[in-house]
Amino acid sequence: MCISNLCRRVLTLASAVFVVAAGLLFAQERAAQERRREQWQKVDDIFAAMASTRAVLTLKKFGVSNARALIGGFEQWQATGNPVETGKK
């Protein structure tokens, strides 16, 4: 085998290894981004729950006696089949 063919094969193999390594690094980074996104979603959920609770406490302070916080939010309310008014008749 000629030296140039050997060099060409080594370079081809090195390129293939580089592409695989780059793909693995990309996949790892993507997984890390997804984990960070899930963590921030949990933080957002906590702050939303705190804001909902604060709104209920504020309403009660100003005399609204039947104010309640929605556990699970509006999406959960709709998913369980509770009534929703849109304002349009």
Keywords:
89 residues, mainly alpha
Detailed description of the structure:
By secondary structure, the chain is mainly alpha-helical. It has helices at 3-61, 73-79. It is rod-shaped, with a radius of gyration of 28 Å.
Question: Helix and strand layout, with pairings?
Answer:
Layout: H1 3-61, H2 73-79
Basic shape:
rod-shaped
Order of helices and strands: HH
Total E-strand runs: 0
Low-pLDDT sequence parts: none
State the helical fraction: over 70%
User: Residue-averaged pLDDT, rounded?
Assistant: 83
Number of domains: 1
User: What's the main sheet like?
Assistant: none
Summarize the structure.
With 89 residues, the chain is an all-alpha fold. It has helices at residues 3-61, 73-79.
